[in-house]
Each structure stands twice: as C-alpha cells, then as structure tokens.
Design a protein that fits this description.
Layout (H helix, E strand, L loop, with lengths): L5 E6 L3 H11 L5 E7 L3 H6 L7 E3 L3 H4 L6 E4 L6 H11 L2 E5 L6 H12 L5 E4 L6 H12 L5 E10 L18 H18 L3 E9 L8 E8 L4 E10 L2 E8 L2 E6 L6 E5 L7 H13 L1 H8 L4 H18 L8 H15 L1
Helix pairs in contact: 1-10, 4-5, 5-11, 6-7, 7-11
Bound molecules: nicotinamide-adenine-dinucleotide.
Nicotinamide-adenine-dinucleotide binds next to helix 1.
C-alpha cells in the first residue's frame, strides 16, 4: 500500500454507489477507485465516475487482487454477511454500507469475522458525519439539555413506482422502511445520546408495494430515556430528530441548512428571544445553504467526511469511529422486536 493513497475496489454499483459514494469518493484524493464490480452489466455501465477503474462481474476476483488495499461492500443488506465476511477473511480493509445485515444471525457472523481479521472493519452510518448531528452531539455532551428524558424521530421519503429496487420491498432482504432506513435514526439515537436502545415496540403497515411501508416505534433506552419514531416511504423527504431534556428541547432538522434549534424550557417557543436566535443562526448558516445549491449540502458533505475518515483509519492505522459492533447495537433491539 502506498503511504498516502488507498487503492479501493467497489462491490455494488447501484443507487447508493452512484448517488452517494462515487461522487463523495471523487472528492477524496487519498482514496483511488481502482476496481468496480457488479453482477449487473447495466449497473456497471451506469457507474460513470471511476472511469479509469477496471470493471468486473465477480466480486471473488477482487479478494486476492494485490493492487487493492480495501473493498467497499455496497450491495443489498441480505448480501452483506457473505461478502463482508469474505473481505475480512482476505485481510483487506472493509467499508460496509449500512445496515449491518438483514438478520441478527448475519450480523453476529460479521462481528465475529471483524474480530479475527487483520483488516479494518468500518460501517458506513453516514449521518454520524452530518454537520448538525456533530453539533447536536456536542450540545448534548455539554449538559445544556439537563437530564435527558426522551428522543423522537421522523424519517420519511417519497419512494414508489417501478424504479424502486426489488429488495427494498422485502423485509427478509433488508428492505422496508424499518430495516434499511429506520436504522439510520437508531444509530443516531445511540450516537447523539451515548445510550443503548434496550427495547423497541413496533407497529408496521404494509402496502401492495412494500413490506414495512410505514412504521411507528416506541422505545426504551438506557438511563431511563424514552424514544418514539415515525418512518415512512410516503409523504416526502424529511429527517428530523428532537431531544428532550429538563432544560429544553433540541431539534435537528437534517435537510435544512439552519436546522439546529434549541428551545429552552423556560422560553415560549414562539417568543422573541427564540425567534431572534433562530434568525441569527439562519444568517450565520447562509454559506452552508450556498454550498447546498452547488450540490455540496450537509448530506453530500457527510459522505465525503465519512470517506476521509475511512482513509485516515487505513493510512494512519486508526480504529474506525463506526464499527460493525455499532451496527449490531443499532439493530439489536430491532431484531429482538421482529423475532
Ligand atoms: N448510506 C446511504 O446514504 C445509502 C444510500 C443508499 C443505499 N445505501 C445502502 O447501500 C446498500 C445498497 O443499496 P442500493 O440502494 O445501492 O441498492 P441497489 O440495488 O441500487 O444496488 C446494489 C447493487 O449491488 C449489486 N449486487 C448485488 N449482489 C451482488 C453481488 N453478489 N456481486 C456484485 N454485485 C452485486 C446489484 O446488481 C446492484 O447493482 C444497502 O445496504 C443500502 O442500505 C446507503
């Protein structure tokens, strides 16, 4: 391996690779995409970034490739255990996209394989690198919210029609809004609060198109914190987390450049002070809004920062900030509730 550049092979060139990872990788010179692999010819052909990379259909050919330092597994969740364990057994470094796996047993296989591998095992919960999540975490850690009482998430999309990948429709493949999407917020709950999710109770509604099209969640976290969530493939794009403490409420609206707002317990939410602080914060965040107009908003930038962190882990021999164990902890109570 070069001292300054990681040579990377990508397995899975679908929607996530094309829309999230390859554009982010193009902004991280320390990571060079040397190989692209997909069992679908059409997916391989549509991966326009990484033009100089060689293209293959069989991922097994990448395991022993001497020019590759690391492999990224960006395939559907029900394939993560087979591919991820093989990468870890090969000794190459692994970047595994979220969610960890489509079943608890697959997740355990991956965690065990990471323990005995000499490669790094990095899990891609990209929201951890989101600017507002980082700021929200620091705010919680400062103690300004007082005793933490509850957390609430709303995460919705506009997913429908024939363009949706078939695995997204089936819980057994890691699809549905709960396993593939809700897990982003379960990981954020852990990350923001430094608490574990101990128990979840779920209600889920299917449609003709999707299993788990809409879900509601009621949760108990460690330290007596309670949680609730609505996840849905309907009603449009929204990703919001609210944290409730004795001293006030912190709102993170992750698709808004000025989406971080603290409402102190003693202040009326519509009062002048709260509104004036929100207006000042919006003005200060205008450069972020401008970056967003150029396609480099917070979600895209979080992906870039995540890949920079992966490069640091490999090149500077650092422990991954998000591990397969984190992936298991984000899903453990969920799998218990589904079993
Ligand atoms: N972090 C994010 O923001 C983000 C965004 C999108 C997707 N994802 C994650 O990325 C993963 C893939 O999701 P997607 O939406 O890209 O799915 P997708 O179906 O669009 O793409 C998956 C690709 O993997 C290929 N593939 C499947 N099995 C393969 C194998 N054995 N060998 C080679 N290629 C194989 C498929 O042909 C397909 O092109 C999921 O875990 C999903 O949760 C993460």
């Amino acid at each position: 391996m070069s001292d300054s550049i990681v040579s990377l092979g990508i397995i899975g060139c679908g929607v996530g690779a094309r829309n999230v990872h390859l554009p982010a990788l193009a902004r991280v010179p320390r990571l060079r995409v040397a190989a692209l692999c997909d069992s679908s010819e059409a997916a391989l052909a549509s991966a326009l970034l990484g033009a100089s990379a060689r293209r293959l259909a069989d991922w097994r050919q990448l395991l022993g490739a001497p020019d590759l330092d690391a492999l990224a597994v960006l395939t559907p969740p029900d394939t993560h255990a087979e591919l991820g364990c093989a990468v870890l057994a090969s000794g190459k470094h692994l970047f595994l996209d979220k969610p960890l796996a489509a079943s608890a047993a697959d997740g355990e296989r991956l965690v065990a394989a990471a323990r005995s591998s000499r490669g790094k095992a990095f899990l891609g919960h990209n929201y951890r690198w989101h600017r507002l999540v980082e700021q929200g975490r620091s705010f919680v850690r400062s103690g300004a919210l007082g005793a933490l009482r509850a957390i609430r998430s709303v995460y919705t999309h506009h997913h429908r029609g024939p363009g949706v990948q078939p695995w997204h429709r089936l819980r057994s493949r890691g699809g549905g809004v709960l396993l593939n999407d809700g897990v982003h917020h379960f990981d954020m709950w852990r990350f923001l609060l430094d608490r574990e999710i101990e128990e979840l109770k779920l209600h889920s509604a299917d449609t003709e198109e999707f299993q788990d099209q809409t879900c509601t969640v009621s949760a108990r976290l460690s330290g007596g914190v309670l949680g609730s969530a609505i996840f849905s493939f309907g009603s449009g794009a929204e990703s919001v987390v609210e944290i409730f403490g004795d001293e006030g409420r912190l709102e993170l609206s992750l698709y808004q450049f000025d989406g971080l707002r603290f409402v102190p317990a003693v202040a009326p939410p519509g009062g002048f002070g709260v509104r004036a602080r929100a207006a000042a914060a919006s003005l200060r965040s205008l450069p972020v809004a401008v970056r967003g107009l150029r396609g480099q908003g917070d979600v895209a930038t979080a992906a870039v920062d995540m890949w920079r962190s992966f490069a640091d882990c490999v090149l500077r021999d650092l422990p991954p900030p998000c591990t397969l164990l984190d992936g298991r902890q984000a899903m453990r109570a969920l799998f218990d509730a589904l079993s």
